[in-house]
Amino acid sequence: MDGHAMTCLWIALALRKNVVEIRKVLKNLFPDLVIADWDLSSFELAKQALKDSTIDTADVLFHVWYNKSEFPTLIEFDRFPGHIDEAVIQATTIELARLFANAFECRSICEGSAYGDDDSPYWNIIWDQGRSYLADNCDTEFGDQTGGPVEIVREISISRFALDDTGRLIP
């Protein structure tokens, strides 16, 4: 897995999208990369996926979960190009969320603890029509399945990040 990081990248979408639609967006963004998905919804499906040679060679490896919140499609990236570094992971996640929001013309949400008002783990960034917002997912259906919708705290200005054709953050 040279040049690939096992990461904790995730984004969620305000629309229900399937694996084929998500893979198509990723292929459009990163046409030269090998993009694969796997189904981790059961032990048997995960075991079967591990026998697929594409999983070992994929530059981008992801799986999708569905939930009943206002962000019903959760995309978790199990492999993505780049280095494991919190600053890189945060910037890459924010840019992917922005790109997916644009591609599907919907709101997206991603991890945003670097922008929060304190060190709680509940801070997110929401992208909506090209604008970014700090959000709190504590006691929400999305965050911990205990409450209502994710609360937008305020609009924030985030410096634009960019990913190159290989999915790596451009410094």
Task: Kindly describe this structure.
This protein is α+β, with helices and mostly antiparallel strands and 171 residues long. It has one domain (4-156). Helix content is 27%, strand content 28%. The chain has five helices and nine strands. A hairpin with a 6-residue loop joins strand 4 (60-66) and strand 5. Residues 1-7 have low confidence and may be disordered.
Question: What key attributes describe this structure?
Answer:
171 residues; alpha+beta; 27% helix; globular; nine-stranded mixed beta sheet; disordered N terminus
> By helix and strand content, what is the structural category?
alpha+beta
Number of helices: 5
Q: What is the overall silhouette?
A: globular
Count of individual beta strands: 9
**Count of individual domains:** 1
Q: From the alpha-carbon coordinates, what is the Rg to the nearest angstrom?
A: 16 Å
Helical residue percent? 25-40%
Order of H and E elements: EEHEHHEEHEEEHE
Unreliable spans = 1-7
Largest sheet: 9 strands, mixed
Estimate what percentage of residues fall within beta strands.
25-35%
The average pLDDT value, as a whole number, equals 88
Distance between the termini: 22 Å
